[in-house]
Write a structure and sequence with these properties.
- The strands form four sheets. The chain has a five-stranded mixed beta sheet with strand order 1-4-3-6-7, with no helix packed on it.
- The radius of gyration is 26 Å and the shape is globular.
- About 40% of the residues lie in helices and about 20% in strands.
- The protein is built from 15 helices and 16 strands.
- The longest helix is centred in the first third of the chain and has 29 residues.
- By secondary structure, the protein is of the alpha/beta class.
- Helix 3 runs antiparallel to helix 4, helix 3 packs parallel to helix 5 and helix 8 packs parallel to helix 10.
- It has four domains: about 100 residues, Immunoglobulin-like (Sandwich); about 80 residues; about 100 residues, no CATH class; about 120 residues, Glutaredoxin (3-Layer(aba) Sandwich).
Length: about 450
């Protein structure tokens, strides 16, 4: 989930003339007909090209101006469907299952990706065997048989790592292989606490935050996210926050005075935490780390986007909505006759909306304590006039300019339909993703 939240912070436009080509086949194609290609620059993503599906294949040009690094092919922007790969001045051909992109990717062309993919499969397989032996050892009554097996697997893994580092010499993949080396204790550890302490204390052994080659990727962000969110955890929210604060401090200390990398990691963290509505952690990251960055490494527009995300977090008073009824200007904040308010964003050009909005209307029209404020995000008023004639119990608002509409922007809307449930004081109490979840909530009213 966290990774999905950090995949698209900024998109920078760039026009290009074709040089190399990325060829993509998806099996099954699952109805995807369009693909967009981006170059990853830390927390930012730079537009490269796009292509429609033609004869079962996507052909995306990569101009010679684009430097080597990690690239991302999006085939499902709404649900975070993408495949990452390495580009180093060569054409690439890949086939994968869109439901399991990383696990099923097969590169038929690209020496960089072939060796990196082979490395990941081999090293992850070896590491899982080591981890399994260590986990079983904790509770085993007879521990002696594990000692020799473990020692053998650690040596095999070290030899395998060394082999791939040597075989990838001169390639971009080598930098990613080196940073992926993992420390394994030479001896089995007696308790899970000792294992976690070892994992934490050696996590950064092979990570060089000053490696300029890796700036053209998300690897530093990925490593920071792994350390902060997955190394330690607790069911107690207070302890969880304390552990994360310590982990964030650790990462920043390891990065040192490389403010560019610090800015990229902190931006990704703020985006992820704001998306999870972890307000205390957002405040910690912003006040203790982001705000004290040199001014050239801070982005006021980005912070404005973070603040916008937080303005529609659970417990916040919903952003104001105004509309005209005749000559009178009406406000959401002035409504006081109902116990529950639903704010929904939809569009007459959205097929899901045309199915769900009538269902919601039928469900709510007999509920006297529920008022629906429906904002239709449209390019013109033609469809709006046609559809809202059938929803006379709702407050229907035409939101021209679609995604750039002022109300949509204040609610940080990127897809339709979107739903917000407000209490009588206009505080946001729920943001259901599915209509079924919204109807379940309303069923209790």
């Amino acid at each position: 989930m966290i990774k999905k939240l950090v995949i698209a912070l900024f998109l920078v436009s760039f026009s290009a003339n074709a040089q190399d080509t990325l060829r993509v086949k998806m099996e099954p194609v699952e109805g995807y007909k369009w693909m967009m290609l981006y170059k990853i620059n830390g927390a930012k993503q730079q537009y490269v090209s796009n292509a429609n599906l033609e004869e079962g294949e996507f052909k995306l040009p990569i101009d010679e101006k684009f430097s080597p690094g990690t690239y991302r092919a999006f085939y499902d922007m709404d649900n975070g469907g993408y495949l990452d790969f390495l580009y180093n001045k060569e054409s690439i051909s890949v086939t994968f299952n869109p439901n399991l992109p990383e696990e099923t990717a097969h590169f038929s062309q690209s020496e960089e990706n072939k060796i990196y993919q082979s490395y990941l499969i081999a090293i992850n397989n070896q590491q899982s065997k080591i981890d399994s032996l260590q986990a079983t050892y904790f509770s085993a009554e007879d521990k002696k048989p594990f000692v020799k097996k473990y020692s053998k697997k650690v040596k095999e893994t070290t030899d395998l790592q060394d082999y791939f580092e040597k075989e990838s010499e001169g390639k971009l993949a080598q930098e990613f292989i080196k940073i992926s080396r993992k420390y394994n204790s030479l001896k089995l550890l007696e308790t899970p606490a000792q294992y976690l302490e070892s994992l934490e204390s050696h996590f950064f052994d092979y990570i060089d935050f000053d490696n300029k080659v890796l700036l053209n990727s998300s690897i530093f962000i990925d490593k920071a996210i792994e350390y902060i969110f997955f190394i330690n955890g607790s069911e107690d929210s207070k302890i969880q926050n304390e552990l994360r604060e310590k982990a964030i401090n650790d990462v920043m200390q390891k990065v040192g005075e490389n403010y560019l990398v610090k800015s990229e990691i902190l931006s990704a963290l703020l985006y992820a935490l704001a998306g999870q509505e972890e307000l205390e952690m957002v405040a910690f990251v912003k006040e203790k780390h982001y705000d004290i960055l040199p001014i050239e490494h801070k982005d006021t527009k980005f912070i404005s986007e973070i603040n916008k995300m937080l303005s529609v977090s659970l417990g916040s008073v919903a952003p104001e909505i105004t509309w005209k009824e005749g000559d009178k200007t009406m406000k959401l904040s002035d409504l006081d006759e109902d116990e529950t308010y639903i704010v929904t964003f939809w569009s007459t050009t959205c097929s899901h909306c045309l199915k769900e909005i009538p269902e919601l209307y039928e469900f709510t029209k007999e509920k006297d304590s529920v008022k629906v404020i429906a904002i239709a995000l449209e390019d013109d008023k033609f469809g709006f006039d046609h559809h809202t004639d059938l929803m006379d119990n709702w407050i229907n608002i035409l939101g021209l300019n679609k995604w750039e509409n002022k109300i949509a922007r204040s609610y940080d809307i990127h897809s339709t339909p979107s739903y917000f449930v407000l209490d009588k004081d206009k505080k946001i109490v729920s943001k259901p993703d599915e209509l079924a979840d919204l109807l379940a909530i309303l069923g209790k009213e």
